Amino acid sequence: MKQAADADRHNRDAYQKDMKFFLGLDQWDSTVKTERDADGRPSLTINQLPRFVDQVVGDIRLNRPRIKTRPESKDATVEMAKIFDGIIKNIEYQSEAATVYDHAAESMVAGGLGAWRVTTKYAGTDTFEQDIAIEWIPNPLSVYFDPRPFDLDKTFADWCFVTEWFSREEFLDRYPGTDPASLPDV
Fold it and tell me: Whole-angstrom Cα distance, residue 4 to residue 1?
């Protein structure tokens, strides 16, 4: 995990800086702001960025990227591709994937990083059957990919961590007998 954090440090730092700017914070150069404050001059911030982010995200909503299957091998058929398309559409519908994609797109447009994942969930409490689901990851900084593959979409990554913050009490409830202080810092 430390390797992943170190390899992606510049993107993570830029994301935090960009998100502060997007939220209307730190839009003034610190030297200029200090000079203006010392002179008693105002340092107004009229944040224009959200409307441009909304425009790009709106365009994405109007022309949503979709998963589309195509038969690529000699054993594959158009009929099977249509069946898989139907299954994928059902997974997206059940997961409310449109909302997931919108949240990730807004984060990506505003700060350069957005995250969601495909996962499985148990269909019920009394069964071992699992359903495929698409989930939004609210904090893209909680995702740490294997830094070795150089493909942009991380298709060939061997591993990925998605971290989560919770209280000490929650930790002890989830992992009884484990000392939180024994965990390494990243």
Answer: 5
